[in-house]
Each structure stands twice: as C-alpha cells, then as structure tokens.
Amino acid sequence: MSRLVVVSNRVANLRSANHAGGLAVGLADTLKQREGIWFGWNGAADGVTGGEAQVERVGRAEQVTVPLSREDIANYYLGYANSVLWPLFHYRLDLVDYRPAFFESYQRVNETFARQLAPLLKADDLVWVHDYHLIPLARCLRKLGCRQRIGFFLHIPFPPPDILVASPNHAELVDALLDYDVVGFQTHTDAGNLKAYLGERLSAVQLGDTRFQVGGRNVTIDRFPIGIDASGFAAMTRQADDEVQIDLMRRRVLGRRQIIGVDRLDYSKGLPERLKAFDRLMAQHPELEKSVTYLQVAPPTREEVGAYGDIRAELEALVGAINGRLADFNWTPIRYIHRSVDRSKLAPLMRGSQVGFVTPLRDGMNLVAKEYVAAQDPEDPGVLVLSRFAGAAEEMDEALLVNPYDIDEMARSLHRALTMPLAERRQRHAALLEQVLRHDSKAWLDAFLSALAHRR
Ligand code: ADQ
C-alpha cells in the first residue's frame, strides 16, 4: 500500500490527537496504520523560514514540522491566508486586505515547504495537501520534479467566479489548483464554482462526471463532504463531569431550556445576527422569559487580524446590552464564554440543549451541526437550526434551515424549535443522524484517498 503524506499548515500532534477534533484523530489513525508523514509548520512564533525540520516518529508515522519566521507568519499566515483568502473565499470582499508583500510571502513559504518536503517523498506516495494556506504547493513540488499523485482538499467555501476575480491573483490561484490530480471541495456548490470558472475563462473540456481537461492538464474535481467521528462524539456525551451534571440538573429543576452555539469567534459565523435573533425571539414571546437561555461558546482565534478584534467588540457590546435589558436577579438570558471548552464538556452540554443554533453567514461545512446531531438522545432529541449557507445544509434538509441574515426568520425558527412536538423532533433527528453516521470522518477519508489512488 502507498504511504500517505499529509501536508497542512498546522500538524496535529499524533501522540495526543485524541484531545483534538475527529478530523485530526481520523487522519492520525490512518497515518499510524498505513505508514506516512504529516508535514507542516511547527507553530512557533520566532523561527527561520527554511530552517531545520524536526522529525518525530509515532508508530509507523513521522511527524515533520518546520519553522517560519516572524515576517512570514505576519505575511503568509495572518496576511495572505487569513486577511485575503479567508475573507475572499467566505464572500467577504469588504474585509479583504490585499497587499503585494502578502502574496510574495505566500509563494515563498509554499516554495520553501516544497523544497523541504520533496527529499522525503517516495515515488508511489499519495500526497494529500489541506486547505487554502497551501494552494501553490503542488505547483512548487512539480517544479522540483515530483511526479507523485497529489490531491488537494479545501475545507472552506470556494467562491463563484464573479467574487474570485476580485483577487488580483485569481489566475495564479486557479492555475496552481490544476497541478493537483484531485481537487476536493465540501459541496456541489463549491465544486460547481471552480468548474464555472474553468468553463468560462479557460475553455475546460469535461471528460467525465468529475474529470476535466484544461490545456494539457487533467484534473479530477469532486465534492467530498467532511464528517465527524459520530459514535465517538456520542460516547463522550455519556461521560459528563460533575460540573456539567450539576448545570444540567439545575436547568431541569427550573424547567429551563437551552439554545447552544459553539463557534470560533470568527466573522463568518454570524454571531451578532444570532444574538439579535435571540433578542427578537424574546421580544415576540415574552412568555419565554426565564424559561430559555442561550449559551454561546466562542473561543478567540486570529486575534492579530484587525477584523477579529472588531467582531469581538461588537459581540461583547450586544451581549451586554441584551443581558442588561432582559436579565433578572435569577436569570441571565445569554451566557457567553470567550474561551475554549474541553470537548468532553461540550458533548454533554450539546446533548442537554434543546436547540442547536448553527447559523454561519458562510461556512465550508460546519462540524458543530453534525456534532449537535450526534450528541442528541434519539428518544428526546433537540432541534438543529441551521444556516442555508453552511456546507452542511446541502446534506441536512431535515434541520430547520434559515437565512442567517434574516433575523425574523431565525427568531421564528427558534420558536418553532422550542415548541416542536416530540414525534416531529424524533423523525427529523432520525433522518439527520442516519446521514451523520453514514457520511462520517472515515467515509470522507476513504472517498478522497480512493479518488486519489485511482488516478493513473
Ligand atoms: P472551523 O471554521 O473551525 O473549520 P467547524 O467545522 O465548526 O469550523 O469546526 C470547529 C471544530 O472545533 C468543531 O469540532 C468544534 O466542536 C470545535 N470547537 C469549536 N469551538 C470550540 C470550543 N470553544 N472549544 C472546543 N472546541 C471547539 C473549518 C471550516 C469548516 C469545516 C472544517 C472542517 O471553516 O467549514 O467544517 O474546517 O473541514
């Protein structure tokens, strides 16, 4: 069997991947079984780009991490990846901060990674590159003579041509994608957006369902919706610690229901709109006062990027204003936690919440939607209120799908979720759970790797 070489900006610790999300665990398990390498940045803030790699063996796999300089972290990682590509690919042209130095650093880091990775590769390795930080990596490897099968998976959305062309580098980015054998997306919409660009601008010829010829190159473009380790996550709900159990019991005694949101504090997640929808719900249904609370867990990320400071300030002002207006000495309507919460607590908290509120303005997939479904008690499940613009919506019809910009519609859906009869809750949940179990993280891995292995 071919070795698997995974390349991503950050490398999950293969020794302690159990603490991370299902994706890291799934990839780590696969690597340990089939032999391979996980290559990426070591995460330190003060290295030298191109400096010595650290190699650590874990089982049959090797973890290879390399340093980056302060300047490249600022320009490649915080700059091009997170101030240009992240907002652009989430349809937020208003937040793109384009600077030529960012793109130069992005290219240089990809070239350096390729130079460090190339000598480690064997002829029949399968190389799997992850996410928007590393779009040019295959191009850089090919220039060094690497002929291995190389696949790319984009975890975030891919925008339609009209948005993509607002980037001065759109032609280079798409051209770089064509050096992969397989380009994978989360949804039909994302894959369709690349196909539309290729058709409109590069006169691509479709050779089969997923095979395209562009100039002399031949590329497979398909959707591979990412999943979670659903049974693993469900198992975690049964191990609530004392603190969580007390919280659940307290709410049961008081007859209080809970709406839960769990997101990195990112402007793509639609958090202010969610708070406004909760506020609207309370204004329209005063009978719900003291009987419903909204718990929003939103740990900080990428705080060095200006747009993240803005969203944090907006959110804190909203929470303060709504709580100030509605709270009573024995009821705090919104509990907002700006910290990371251990997954072993999150899972039982999701199970103990009657509504999962997942309404990003745009999201590649959104694993929280799937985790919420996996965490529910099938006999008495909660209801998922899900944004139409999350990739997960393509597969999760039985959720209450909403437009995350429409505050009234979200407030109505929250009310519908809180008053939904048991039979309907069960029927919707059963259908969603079946889907989450079938398209789990293992199915995603197998589908992508099989598509890559079948090239040539
Ligand atoms: P993210 O934007 O990070 O991922 P998401 O898919 O929701 O979004 O995954 C977040 C993960 O982190 C979930 O497993 C969640 O439980 C966990 N998490 C969130 N907040 C947490 C907290 N406070 N404490 C602990 N854990 C927390 C990107 C894309 C998504 C895509 C994934 C995977 O933006 O669209 O689904 O990659 O491809």
Q: Can you tell me about this structure?
A:
The protein is α/β, with parallel strands linked by helices and 456 residues long. The relative contact order is 0.11. The radius of gyration is 23 Å and the shape is globular. It has a ten-stranded mixed sheet, with helices on both faces. Strand 11, helix 10 and strand 12 form a beta-alpha-beta unit. Helices cover 44% and strands 17% of the residues. It has helices at residues 22-34, 70-89, 100-117, 137-143, 161-164, 170-177, 188-202, 230-237, 242-254, 271-284, 306-326, 343-351, 367-375, 407-418, 422-438, 441-453; strands at residues 4-10, 36-41, 54-58, 61-66, 126-130, 149-153, 182-185, 205-206, 211-214, 217-223, 257-262, 292-297, 334-337, 355-358, 383-387, 400-402. It has two domains: 4-227 and 441-453, 3-Layer(aba) Sandwich (Rossmann fold), CATH 3.40.50.2000; 230-438, Glycogen Phosphorylase B (Rossmann fold), CATH 3.40.50.2000. The mean pLDDT is 95. The longest helix is centred in the C-terminal third of the chain and has 21 residues, at 306-326. The structure holds adenosine-5'-diphosphate-glucose. Residues 21, 23, 155-156, 226, 262-264, 297, 299, 340-341, 343, 346, 363-368, 371 line the site of adenosine-5'-diphosphate-glucose.
Count of helical stretches:
16
Overall outline: globular
CA-atom Rg in angstroms: 23 Å
CATH superfamily of the largest domain: Glycogen Phosphorylase B
Strand content: 15-25%
How many discrete structural domains?
Answer: 2
Second CATH tier, the architecture of the largest domain: 3-Layer(aba) Sandwich
Can you tell me the residue ranges where pLDDT is under 50 for at least 5 consecutive residues?
none
Return the CATH topology of the largest domain.
Answer: Rossmann fold
Strand order of the largest sheet: 3-4-2-1-5-6-7-10-9-8
Q: Tell me about the biggest sheet?
A: 10 strands, mixed
- Main CATH class of the largest domain: Alpha Beta
What's the count of strands? Answer: 16
| Percent helix range | 40-55%
What's the rounded overall pLDDT mean? 95
Bound molecules: adenosine-5'-diphosphate-glucose
Distance between the termini: 15 Å
Structural class: alpha/beta
